[in-house]
Amino acid sequence: MHVTDYAALDGLVQVSILMSRDGQYIYWVEEPKLSKEEEKLLLRIRDELVRLMSAKNAPSIYDYGNVKEYVKGIAESLIRRYAPGISTEGVRRIMYYILKNTVGFGSIEPLVNDPRVEDIHINGPDRSVYVWHNRYGHIKTNISISDDELNRLVTLLSQRIRRNPSSASPILEGLLIPENLRVEILLRDVASIGPVITIRKFREAPLTVVEMIKLGTLSSRLAAYLWFMLDHGVSILIIGPTGAGKTTLLNALLFLVRNGLRIITIEDARELYLLHDHWVPLVARTSEAPGVANVDLYELVKVSMRLRPDYIVVGELRGEESYVFFQALASGHTGLSTLHAYSAEMAIRRLLSKPMEIPATLLTSLGVIVQISVVAKNDEITRRVTRVEEVIDVQEDRPVLNRVFEWRRSDDSIVNANDSVLVSRIIENHALQPDEVKAELDRREKFISLMVKNNITSPSSVFEIINKYYMNPEEAFNELNKGKTSEGK
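^ thats the sequence. predicted structure below, dont judge the formating
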């Protein structure tokens, strides 16, 4: 049974979401069909390309953007030479197969180029490829990869991420630029059905809080609260399962930070993207070469504390770098990070246990725990911030939590659960007037709601209007209220 259909790759590929008899979704790909003449032309051009690609003037595969344009340029000239009367659509069909099978990803090319596919899972040769679809979750596809093609794909990806596949290093990971793909490869040494490949896709432009509100992931009130927390030095930990959108939410929140403040981001591979003038992205380096030191997250968090940051951001807490991160929070730095956990309680148990082993007394240096989850809504997959907890105390080595927001499934809304203890402490510590703080939170909520109403969604537009708010809140508010913005005109 057909559930839905849509096109990918500028209409060249048709995707159908089907429902099997046992109630499982199936991702069905139909690629463009070639005429017999087009098939003969494709074979002729492919043979010619193999000869030309071996020439010394061909760009390196590491320079993917140039090598793709190089192949495309030669292929177009060959098509015009051998078939001058071919239609535009015929050129597009042939070019699709040329790029797919020379510098592309072979059988999974349609999956890589479908914006609704977030993850691609290849579980060994001659087995169905699975995807994580942004509406239907994990789905089996009608694509499988032969052993030879899978080995070629491993070679291609290994070259692109500059890793050497071998029994000595059977686990390879890296980032593909410019596609923004995170690649994990497990060779047969550790995956008996392998090679196993997981490709995770990242948006070229990050989602903003406005887009997340429009999607229902956040509410304007919650966004205003988190914005207020960041402004007043409250550290935030975002938790949730794999694929819940933790890094996406982290990136979105960072666009609420005033430009000019020093932000240090620390990651295994670059996923965060900011527009701040004073942003320093640090990336861990893994080395297999003798005499070349590994630079891990632990070293980078340590060095970040000597760079006078206003905000220390660790992409994900996993190991001993967590202890240094919490030492930084305890010494007065504001920090943000993510952690794999299904609840605040589980997150705290992970933090207290090996390999992190955070002393319970340091947990209060963490202010807010934001839980984001993957939830089913009307038989579709979506993301929601389901709980927001404040860490307000530690009693008998156990933290005391105060839930300030929670997601209500009945009407799909994020509601206040309890009054914020941290807001009260900010009022007390900064000698603020409670009425003024309440008015500021209300104004920020209205400001964000106006951004949603005026469709101020792009990272650059959000960044611009947020910084206008910092310079002159009333003027920025009035500008939004009148719709005089770059995306709101």
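The chain has a mean pLDDT of 91.
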